[in-house]
Amino acid sequence: MKKFYILFLLTFFYSINAQTFDFQSGQDQYGWISGGGGITDANLSITSEGLVVSWAAPGDVGSGNWESGRKPKLKHINANVDADVNKILSMTLYNNSNLVTRIRVIHFKGLNGTDPTSTAGAQARYASFDIPALTDLQETFYYDLTNADWINYNNAIEDETELDMDHIQIQFVTASPANGFLNSEGSITIHSMAFINEIPSEERVDYNFNNDVEGFIGQNGVSVSQSADNLILNISDTSPYPKLTQSGSFAVNADAYKYATVFLSENNSPKSRMTFVSPQGGNQFVSADITPNSTIAQEINFDLSALDNWNGIINNFAFQIIEPTEEGAPLISSGIANIDRILFLTENPLSINQVSFEQNLKVFPNPVKDILNIQSTSAVRALNVLNLLGQEVLRQGGAYRTINVSSLSPGLYILKTEHINGRKATRKFIIE
Prior knowledge:
Elements: H1 4-17, E1 19-21, H2 23-26, E2 33-34, E3 43-47, E4 50-55, E5 73-76, E6 88-94, E7 102-108, E8 124-130, E9 139-144, E10 168-173, E11 186-196, E12 202-203, E13 206-207, E14 216-219, E15 222-227, E16 230-235, E17 243-246, E18 250-253, E19 259-268, E20 273-278, E21 284-289, E22 298-303, E23 313-314, E24 318-322, E25 335-345, H3 354-359, E26 362-364, E27 371-375, E28 380-386, E29 392-397, E30 402-404, E31 411-419, E32 424-431
Parallel strand pairs: 12-18
Antiparallel strand pairs: 1-11, 2-5, 3-4, 4-11, 5-10, 6-9, 6-11, 7-8, 7-10, 13-25, 14-17, 15-16, 16-25, 17-24, 18-23, 19-22, 19-25, 20-21, 20-24, 26-27, 27-30, 28-29, 28-31, 31-32
């Protein structure tokens, strides 16, 4: 996920092309206030880190003081956002609440609304985006607000005459239960918000989740986190269409990369189908079956070459993980899925001859004393060495052509390699 250094690079761009609320640098609330009293009440304060949004604990049972919890909001009634141009919300924040897992953006229906000052649901449009309960410092998320009502308007109730989007609210709730209460006190820090016209992206085709979630966010009841070089999808039972989406931090050149492989470490859920979603100009799909309730690693391959809209630079592709039925909508169910890697390829991995690939992998010298050389038609992404008991005794990541085995005892070992084309190979070697 892009952090503070990306924010620094983007700040100048925002100041020219977007509506920016840089709470940290400006030390100002810029017109944002608490969204209301009672259940939606929020305490706002400016610190050296930005705008801190805090909320109180629920009242005692029987007190009538919002004993179920809070759903804090902040709002703006004169935001002056050019909604016709700027349809992406960028938020750089620090969530250490261990409570908030969903952000709701609520705005006046610019096309169909009649009273922007009304709190009635019929006057507002809602968009929900899920975030981790704990984030890194200065973590940036991008949310696409594109819908028929996110447009500029001028309402007779307002004093100003400019065409823009003024009435916007930001609410903090839980993803599971859906839009649920925050049942203890806490806070979240917003360093900055900006409404921009496009998501700045860095091209990437190999997502290995060694350090973070690499721009992926959960939607429709999915919370994501990173652990042990895996992307962890915690799927709640709130929607039949749980989704993993690239938020825009990274992009793929869809003209060159027409194939995708998802390396699923475990699927501890009843979900039995994964669907790749290409969103440009209307969603198009490619689906593949997966094994439910399984701890065995799986490779799911998608041929994207037949999709009419998989072209150009795309930074908002997605994966749905569903439990289909013979008729009607998929079942709503919960579980956890672990993804080790998402890889985009220029050639179909199913067309690669695995036997030929393994034959082309060479390790030498064999026997070896210290440095084992690896030669292959495809660069090594990661490797591990096992003893004859199947125990891992050495692991190495990165595009290395050699491995130092001098620390291992003499004997017979098994080398397992993973390559950047998605293939795997195995070789035996002897240490003298």
